[in-house]
Design brief:
Keywords: Membrane, Transmembrane, Transmembrane helix. InterPro entries: YkvI-like. This is Membrane protein YkvI. The structure is a single chain. The protein is 79% helix and 0% strand. The relative contact order is 0.23. The chain contains 15 helices and no strands. It has a single domain, classed as Hydantoin permease (Orthogonal Bundle). The protein is mainly α.
């Protein structure tokens, strides 16, 4: 069970980033639909559990050790290259969202301009990629329980300080910007784009796990934790929609309402997750084109990092509502192909 929990926590670590932990994604994909967003959260939890299990078992069956190998296996020689290209460039898009998220966090918590905050994160990520190419980033599974604890504190605060009736909260929530026009489509899209970014890594992560039950349970636990986090964040924001409405960092706003110290701890945790995700995504994007040992790797990292920072100037909320939605639709193909691949016999190595 310990190994399964590690796999599940790592899976959560892959997906939890600026948009998720800040509450901005949950706001656009769930809370903006009011009470129906709660049902959407339950649907999302069930999908994460099932697909987490599916991808984890697929990784074990394939003994996957390559991002490219996985995509070509589930997509074949025709669709595989398309998936490879789309997901590779989406990695860059996620890194851009992380830079923008860092800017919003620094601005809301420390009063630093969003542009300066994005610059700080971009420099930190670029320096990390320049100084350590052997082991760029380790998935910090221990951050997941810490995040759940903070969300529980925020939830309890929201419940006991709620000034609105559920009807009033529902009405106010529906005034917020939604990523899609329908709560059910929103739930499916949310799962889709998250798995598009994290599924390949989950498969590779479970590739060395010989015990299929351990891998499968890891996927289930990861999906369950993700689902629980989404529902808790959604309920907390719905209950205090009068406070978080229109905020770029809703959970950070709620944490700061409890106590400045809680807000600071939340901000530090959020920045840590943004940093890890940005480093992992930008590294994965760069090495897809240039080998780490190549002389052109470091110059490429600098150029790509600068381009990512420039792109982040579009704004965090705008990026969450556009980049992720587009990838969500494309991710449907990945999910369907992965399930089909799991149902057939794995390749013998």
């Amino acid at each position: 069970m310990k190994r399964s929990f590690q796999i599940g926590s790592a899976f959560v670590g892959l997906i939890v980033g600026a948009g998720f932990a800040s509450g901005q994604e949950v706001m656009q994909y769930f809370t903006s639909f009011g009470m129906m967003g709660t049902i959407g959260g339950i649907v999302t939890a069930l999908l994460f559990i099932f697909l987490g299990f599916t991808f984890a078992r697929l990784g074990t069956n394939l003994k996957a050790d390559s991002h490219k190998t996985v995509l070509y296996y589930i997509g074949g020689k025709y669709i595989g290259p398309i998936l490879d290209i789309v997901i590779t460039f989406f990695l860059f898009g996620v890194a851009v969202v992380m830079f923008a998220g860092a800017g919003s966090t620094f601005n809301q918590m420390f009063g630093i301009s969003a542009a300066a905050g994005s610059v700080i994160m971009a420099i930190a990520v670029i320096l990390t990629l320049l100084l350590n190419t052997n082991k760029i980033i380790g998935i910090i599974a221990t951050i997941t329980p810490y995040l759940i604890a903070i969300i529980f504190i925020i939830l309890i605060y929201s419940i006991f300080t709620m000034d609105l009736s559920l009807a009033e909260a529902d009405a106010l929530a529906r005034e917020e910007t939604s990523a899609t026009s329908n709560w059910l489509l929103s739930a499916f899209l949310y799962v889709s784009y998250n798995l598009a970014a994290g599924a390949a890594l989950l498969i590779i992560m479970t590739g060395n796990e010989r015990n299929k039950k351990v891998a499968g349970m890891g996927g289930i636990l990861g999906g369950l934790m993700l689902g629980v986090l989404i529902i808790l964040i959604h309920i907390a924001m719905l209950f205090r929609i009068d406070i978080v409405g229109g905020k770029e960092m809703p959970t950070l706003e709620l944490a700061s309402q409890i106590h400045p110290a809680v807000g600071l701890l939340t901000a530090i945790a959020l920045l840590g997750m943004i940093y890890n995700t940005a480093v992992g995504m930008l590294y994965s994007f760069t090495v897809r084109f240039i080998a780490p040992e190549s002389k052109s790797f470091r110059p490429a990292v600098i150029v790509i990092g600068i381009l990512g920072f420039i792109a982040s100037m579009v704004g965090f909320t705008t990026l969450v509502g556009s980049v992720y939605v587009v990838m969500g639709y494309l991710g449907f193909a990945l999910i369907i192909l992965a399930i089909a691949a799991w149902l057939r016999k794995p390749v013998r190595k």
